Amino acid sequence: MGGVQPPVHLAGQACLSWSAGSLRPIFNATRELANTAAYQSVRILSVSLNQAEQELEDLAEVDLQWSKPTAENLGHGSFEYMSAVCWLFGRHLSDTLQYPVGLVSSSWGGTPIEAWSSGRSLKACGVSKEGFTLPVSISGPSEHSVLWNAMIHPLLNMTLKGVIWYQGEANIDLNRDLYNCTFPALIEDWRQTFHLGSQGQTERFLPFGFVQIRWHQTADLGYVPNLRMPNTFMAVAMDLGDRNSPFGSIHPRDKQTVAYRLHLGARAVAYGEKTLTFQGPLPEKIELLADKGLLSLTYSQQIEVQRQDDKIFEISCCGDRQCKWLPAPMNTFSTQTLALNISSCPSAVAALRYAWASWPCEYKRCPLYHPNSTLPAPPFIAFIAN
After folding, report:
1. How large is the angle between the packed helices 255-269 and 84-97, nearest 10 degrees?
2. What's the whole-number average pLDDT of the chain?
3. Which residues, in sequence order, are CB contacts of 138 under 8 Å at separation 6+?
4. Which of 75, 207, 223, 268 could form a cystine bridge with 278, CB 3.0-4.6 A?
């Protein structure tokens, strides 16, 4: 990689291939840009935008060589190339670890997962070349593997501690139903190639974190780590929508909370803090109390009911050979249990889902959170045994 290898004492954390957000479109941007003097043990490297038809062995260029963070280095005043989440995430890690951290930012906004995937992983998921007009959600390169070839493959001889990924909206209308394959396949492929490229110095099951934008990102299980996605962690962001953002509602300005939630996952999965809570509560038991017209949920963690909601829980009510989704209003609750009113369904309840909407709740106003960590309960869907 020529002159862009990190010093060997750095704990490298890569912030790779996402729809990147700069620091300017975030809350308190001026303060965040000014607050760099306390983080002089952090080093940052920013990869230049580039694409290639074949896998490159070296980066064509970098926007920033390994450097100390300054307001200028974090984007030369305009913050065009350094991800805000990457920087804020790295700050949290530095505060926790108290030793040097290296951040590699390789990102291009408005790009689909196909551009960041190798041909191997796309073939494994049966992804074919697109022959139609690209959706408006894609503003950057979309051709298969071109960003993997130019902006990820040249980094393979680095030793990484982990990766964080922030992407999903660009695939809302492009191979969306394959994302539950393409994302786990990308993770597995990156892990294997980084492990081999670093001659074994990067862990074979490299910790991989991501911001949850869509259900398919969890391989349709709703939580991570799971069997298809081991050693992963995610930051649930469904309560961070920003209706008033001048950059569009899918570009929320609260990148600080995204970074905070991601760093909790990194501490637990990559750095071994086994007792740290890094994901909001999910039900571990769902019991149908048909005689009472209730569905009882028992959660694996304590829950805090921030507000009662009549529509965010929905049941699949089946009768006359068809099913329809109906609201299941929240009824009674305790520290780990919640009862839902299902009296609207006179027939069989087949499934339950939570927060199953593009905009399930307003800013930090979802109904359910973990009481101490302020982490929202993730969306889920579960089938009910009658």
Report:
1. 50
2. 88
3. 110, 111, 112, 170, 174
4. 268
